[in-house]
Design goal:
This protein has about 260 residues and is an alpha/beta fold. Helix 1 (about 5-15) crosses helix 8 (about 190-200) and helix 10 packs across helix 11 (about 240-250). The chain has a single domain, classed as Vaccinia Virus protein VP39 (Rossmann fold, 3-Layer(aba) Sandwich), CATH 3.40.50.150. The chain has helices at about 5-15, 20-25, 50-60, 75-80, 95-110, 145-155, 175-180, 190-200, 215, 220-230, 240-250; strands at about 65-70, 85-90, 110-115, 130-135, 155-165, 205-210, 255-260. Helices cover about 35% and strands about 20% of the residues.
Length: about 260
């Protein structure tokens, strides 16, 4: 551990090092960091195995209740636990994701509400819930303490965060090297997140797991290629090349679940 600097400060500094260089961003034919709703469709009930994070959320919803899904995408984390959840609330910065979330709730007969914007900027507009879930979003939060504090303030029973052990793009660093001769950082990691949350006074439980195989096989390869082509700031004609290289380095199934119960 570095002296004279908190884990939260290290987290912010190391995340900032992942920024794409301006000259690459300026050459991008499409704005990166936009996600495709088709990649985040919530799987149909009975077609998948609950992940460890799903189980931790579900057990806190025994008897029913509401779940708030922060950075919800299509709502995979929320709908995995509905039922037992009887109400789902979603937040996301992309309106097309929220449209998908609302449509899924309607199709499944689950009460739902959605809030557009980035967390925690919109936290004051969002109601509390029995359980708050947040999957694969934390590496987007430069202010990890403020982000997590807002999750904590919105939970009546439990908070469940799921992240990868390393930055989500760490596995695909070879793509950045191939297309741009760009070396990506190695920090921060889930360990840094745990330290920062602990410094904020939250006693967090930490559990490691591998996603069920059906979750890893759910994304069509052509969608994965389109996603990476955009994130890498490349033109559409490079998609076939992205597909080949991405297939050589499949996305990791390793997950770290961070969770804690409310003491109020």
């Amino acid at each position: 551990m570095e002296s004279g600097i908190t884990a939260a400060e290290r987290w912010a500094r190391d995340l900032a090092a992942w920024a794409v260089p301006p000259e690459i961003l300026e050459s991008a034919p499409r704005r990166p960091f936009v996600f495709m709703p088709e990649m985040f469709v919530a799987p149909e009930p009975g077609t998948f195995e609950l992940s460890l994070s799903n189980r931790r959320a579900s057990e806190a919803l025994d008897g029913g209740g509401s779940v708030l899904d922060v950075g919800c995408g299509g709502g995979a984390a929320a709908f995995a636990v509905a039922p037992p959840a009887t109400e789902v609330i979603g937040t996301d910065r992309q309106s097309d994701m929220l449209n998908q979330f609302s449509a899924t709730a309607c199709n499944r007969g689950v009460a739902a509400s959605v809030y557009a914007g980035s967390w925690p900027e919109i936290a004051a507009e969002v109601p509390a819930a029995d359980v708050v879930v947040c999957h694969n979003v934390l590496y987007n939060a430069g202010d990890i303490v403020g982000f997590v504090a807002a999750l904590n303030d919105h939970a009546r029973r439990r908070v469940v965060i799921e992240i990868t052990p390393k930055h989500p793009q760490d596995r695909r660093r070879a793509l950045w090297r191939h297309f741009w001769n760009l070396e990506r950082p190695h920090e921060p990691t889930a360990t840094t997140a745990v330290e920062a949350i602990g410094e904020a006074g939250i006693a967090v439980n930490v559990e490691e797991s591998i996603l069920p195989a059906d979750r890893l096989a759910s994304r069509p390869r052509h969608l994965e290629a389109a996603y990476w082509c955009r994130q890498l700031c490349l033109p559409l004609e490079r998609e076939p090349e992205c597909e080949v290289l991405a297939a050589e380095t499949p996305f990791t199934g390793e997950r770290v679940t961070l969770w804690w119960d409310m003491n109020r």
